[in-house]
From TrEMBL:
GO terms for molecular function: DNA binding; DNA-binding transcription factor activity. Keywords: DNA-binding, Transcription, Transcription regulation. This is GntR family transcriptional regulator. Residues 16-82 form the HTH gntR-type domain. PROSITE patterns: HTH_GNTR. It comes from the Bacteria.
């Protein structure tokens, strides 16, 4: 047998894909609020619902705990709550990154990127009309892909992806507020118009206004006392 070059041994190739599927399913349930902040994660119930073993489930739960999405408290594992201050910080980071992104897109996107922008905005508008949060999240992700490609800046996408689950949880809270969905897509249409006019300053202003409005709606849905609740980091 050949001696390993780096001291690494064989890996179990069949286990990782299953763990990723379990982790993805749980992460999506947390994103959409199906597993609400503070909810207890009972292994027996989750194993039955997902039809997986406790060993596989525990591996995924450890991964989510490392990401800060799950907290081990006195009542066992619970879905971590997002505090108002954490929410404000997330929206502040979004403002910095997305303000830069739309400015770059307005200045350097080519005709193909502009055409893809139209398609992405139309798809997002359709998702808002359907009012299905999973569709909205997927359409938003595609819009970011288009903006980053047109701006030639995938660093922004990489940084936002690290906050993705938290952003989507706040997006769910924001869109749960009456009339927010209609206002949100109107803001996106206005942003697209500014981008197509290559008005970088106006695009930035609209993007920041969109984020501020989303923050106000989301913070209105975040309990003010989460800092004292179990499940808050």
């Amino acid at each position: 047998m050949n001696k390993p070059l780096h001291g690494l041994g064989p890996v179990r190739q069949e286990a990782a894909p299953l763990r990723r599927k379990i982790t993805s399913a749980l992460r999506r349930a947390i994103e959409t609020g199906a597993l609400a902040p503070g909810s207890r994660l009972v292994e027996k119930d989750l194993c039955a619902e997902l039809d997986v073993s406790r060993t596989s489930l525990r591996e995924s739960l450890r991964e989510l705990e490392a990401e800060g999405l799950v907290t081990n408290g006195s009542k066992g594992l619970v879905v971590t709550a997002i505090s108002p201050q954490e929410a404000r910080n997330i929206y502040a980071v979004r403002g910095v990154l997305e303000g830069l992104l739309v400015e770059q897109f307005a200045r350097q996107a080519d005709g193909d990127a502009m055409a893809r922008l139209d398609v992405a905005v139309a798809d997002l508008a359709s998702a808002y009309e359907e009012a299905v949060i999973e569709r909205i999240i997927a359409a938003k992700a595609e819009l970011y892909e288009v903006l980053c490609a047109g701006a030639d800046n995938f660093i922004v996408l990489e940084l936002l992806s690290r906050l993705n689950t938290r952003i989507n949880r706040l997006r769910f809270a924001s869109l749960s507020q009456p009339l927010r969905a209609k206002a949100s897509i109107a803001e996106i249409h206005a942003l697209a118009d500014a981008l197509k006019r290559r008005d970088a300053a106006e695009a930035r202003r609209i993007a920041l206004g969109h984020i501020d409005a989303a923050a106000a709606a989301a913070l209105g849905a975040v309990p003010k006392n989460t800092a004292s609740e179990e499940g808050t980091p």
